[in-house]
Protein: 4-alpha-glucanotransferase
Amino acid sequence: MEFFENVKKRRAGVLVSLPSIVSEHSFECGDIYSLIPLCDWAKDVGFSIIQLLPLNDTGFGYSPYSAISAFAIDPLYISLYKLDLNVKSRKREIRSLENHPIRIRNLKLEIIRKYYLENKKEATREATYFLEKHPWCYSYAAFRLLYEENHGSGWWEWPKEFQNPNHAKEYIFSEKRNEALFWVYLQKVAYDQLSEVKVHFEDSGVYLKGDMPILTSRNSCDVWEHPEYFIMDLQAGAPPDDFSKTGQTWGFPVLNWEVLEKSNYSWWKDRLSYLENFFHLYRIDHVIGMYRIWSIPKEDDTALKGWFHPQFGISKEEFINEGLDPKRFESLGLIHEFKSDHYIFYWDFWKEAAYQELNEETKAKLYPLSELHIKEEEKHWRESGEKILEIFESFSSMVPCAEDLGSVPSFIRESLFERQMIGIDVVRWTKSFTTGEFIPEASYRKNAISVLSTHDTSLVLDWWKNEGDLESKLQFFFDRLKKPRPKTEDQILLGLLSFVLGTSSLFSIQLFQDLALGVPSVLENPEKHRINLPGTADHSNWTYRFPVLFEEFASDFKRNLTLRKLLLDSGRNP
Structure:
C-alpha cells in the first residue's frame, strides 16, 4: 500500500501507444515485453509514470476504445520473447510508420497455437485454472470463438441459438472446448506477462497507469451477455458545438445505471479489480458521462436529436398548464416524447425556422419550459455522478484520474474539484476564460496532469506549425520568458517541454512522440506521427509505429541528458 500512497508527488510521465513502441525483442509491433526497456529508460531519465492506452481486445476493429471485451487483453500484446518462442520479425529495422494489427495478431496466434498444442496437457490445465479464477473469461472465450466464426458480424446477426449467451457458452464449452480453452489460455498468458511487468515497475519505482473506457462496443461480449446493463435503443455521443455543427454519434449503447445499481455495480467492480492486477493508476475516460451523457436514438446519423441522459423532461401536464399542446411542437420537430407523456427539447430548437415562425405569445410560453427543470436536474446529475465515483474509489486502491476535457459544465467541474479528482489540462486549450489567452505555468490546476498532446490530437509540433496564430505562441512561450525565439524544431520542442514540465500541475505526462528530440522523421513531419484523428475511419487510425527501435532511442546520450535536466529543473524527479 505504501507504493500507492507515495504516488501523489510532483512527477513526470510518458504516454505511449503500446504497439508503436517496437523493441529488439518485439514481433512486428510493441508488446508487453516492450514495457521493460521503456520502464528502465524512464527510471534512468527521471520519468516515474508510464501511461498506456487501453489494451483491450479489438477483434476485427482497430480502436482500443471500441473493444469486444471490457476485460480481455488483446493477444496482439503477448510477448513471444517472454514465452521463450524465438521467433523474429521479418525485418530487423523499421521501414514503415504503420502497423497491421490484424495481420500481426493472426501471425502470433498461429505461433502460440502451435506452442499450445505441443504443450496441450499443461496448457489446458493452466487455462482451466485461470477460467475458474476469472469467470468473465467463460463468456469471452465463447463470444470470441463465435465472433471469429461469424467474421466479426454483430452478435444480433448470429444464428438465433447463439444470440442467447447461456446456450452459446454451454454449446461452445461442450462441443468446441479445446478451441475455447485456447482463447482462455491466451488471456492467462497475457495476465501473467502484464502482472509480472507491474512487479518490475514497482521494483524500479515507476508507476504504471492504465485506461478504462466508460463505454463499450455494441458488438462486444459484455453487451451480448448483459444487455440489461445497457439502453440498447440509444447510442452515446456529444451535442453540437463549434467543432461539429451536428454533434458526434459514437454508436456505443448508453449505460443503464439503474440496473447496474441493482447489481451493486458488480460489472464495474469486476472490471476495476481486474485492472488492478496490472496498474497503479487509471484514467477514467469521459468522466462527464458518469454524471450525464448525450444520448441519441441508435438509428440516427447525427446527434441533433439527442438529450442528456438521465433527464426528467417536461411532462405533458406542464405543457397543458401553459395552454400548449406538446403534440403540436413534436410535429414541428422542436421536441421529442422520450418516455410516456414526457418530452425533451431538441438542441438549439430555438434556432429552427419552425420555432421562429411561432407567434411571440407562444414563444414566451414555450421557451421557459425548456429550462424548467435545469437546476433540479443538475443537482440530480451531480449526486448521481458523485455516487458512482465514490463507489469506484471503494472498489480499488488504484489512483483514479479523470479525463475531463471538452465543454465541462460548471457543476461537474466544481464536483470534480471538491472530490479532488486529478484532471487533465492540455496546454493548447488551457486558456483564460476572460481573455482567451494562454495562462502562465503557475496558474495551472495543481490537482491535474499537464500535457502537450493527447492520443486524439495532433503532435505539439504539428500544432505549433499548422494550427492557430504562430506569433501569439512565440510571444507567450518564448518572448514572455525572455528566451530567444527558436530556429529549429528541436528548440521549439525544448521550449514547449520546459513550459509544460514547469506548470504547477501535480503530474506532467507527455506523449512519447513529443519527446522525440533529435528524431528527424518526427521533427520534420509530425503530422505523420499522429495516433488517432477522431471522426475518421477506424482502420486509418491506431496503426502508428515509432520509426526507431526503442533500444536505439533509449541509448541516445544527448537526448537523455537533455530530458534529465528538464525533469530536474522542474522538480519532477522524485
Notes: The radius of gyration is 25 Å. The chain has a mean pLDDT of 95. The CA atoms of residues 144 and 183 lie 8 Å apart. Residues 307-377 form one domain.
